[in-house]
Amino acid sequence: GLLEASDALAEALQQAGILRGTGDGLALERGATRAEAATVIYRIYLML
């Protein structure tokens, strides 16, 4: 289902170094700040 797909995507992004987490895990349920979102976008940009 959708939950399993999102977990798999989060795992793949973490393994690629795009998502790094909070030290306590990814904390996906709380959403992201603007700074965190900008960091993810920048990391993807660097991979292009």
Descriptors:
single chain; 48 residues; mainly alpha; globular
Write the layout of secondary structure elements.
Layout: H1 2-15, H2 34-47
Q: Helical percent range?
A: 55-70%
**What is the molecular shape?**
globular
Return the domain count.
Answer: 1
Number of helices: 2
- Uncertain residue segments: none
Any idea what the radius of gyration is? Answer: 11 Å
Work out the number of β strands.
0
Largest sheet: none
In quaternary terms, these chains amount to: single chain
Q: What is the straight-line distance between the termini?
A: 30 Å
What's the pLDDT, averaged over the residues?
86
Structural class from helices and strands?
Answer: mainly alpha
Instruction: Write down the secondary-structure element order.
Output: HH
What portion of the residues fall into strands of 2 or more residues? under 5%
Give a structural overview.
The structure is a single chain. With 48 residues, the protein is mainly α. 58% of the residues lie in helices and 0% in strands. The longest helix has 14 residues. The chain is globular.
In short:
The chain has one domain (2-47).
